Amino acid sequence: MSFHRHAWVTAACVVTLAGCGGEQAQQQPAEEPPAAAQPAPATPGLAIPATLPPGVTADMVRQGDEIFHGAGICFTCHGADAKGLPNLGTDLTDPQWIHVDGSYESMVNQIMAGTPAEKSTTGTPMPPRGGSTITDDQVKAVAAYVWALSHPGGM
Ligand code: HEC
Questions:
Q1: Which CATH class is domain 39-150?
Q2: Ligand 1, from 91, 126, 138, 149: best to mutate by most atoms within 8 Å of Cβ?
């Protein structure tokens, strides 16, 4: 009985030690937040086109980058790279448009108003401002970002 008990305690210690060592080794990556749950990082090395539409500044494009991947929650439907997600939002980087005509103004209007489900090719609606609470100025900035993404050569 006493041998049995000793053996059990020893075994428990070994398991605990192994568990601790293993946990510490695995803790590091586990602390990284899961990519989907966190705002996606802004575009690395964002290229600002040399010429921008009237009223658009390079600062607006940079702010729009942050808004797209943060407060504007655009990335949740259009993807962190803005290339679209299946059955959600479409690719915003190519020059093929459905609801806008490629102009900066049309992008501001689209982001303000969104797209109702019956007009969406995916059947998914885009709520006004993407369903976020961004301000008019933030809408203009995120439109500047989308314009810049889709017009790398500028005006
Ligand atoms: C809930 C999902 C959702 C969110 C969030 C969302 N969108 Fe959209 N977006 C859509 C859908 C769906 C469409 C229409 C796609 C279609 O018709 O297939 C669309 C269309 C667009 C278009 C027009 C594309 C075209 O081809 O004409 C632009 C520009 C756009 N979104 C920008 C944004 C921006 C900027 C944000 C963030 C403020 C945003 N969207 C947030 C779902 C979303």
A1: mainly alpha
A2: 126
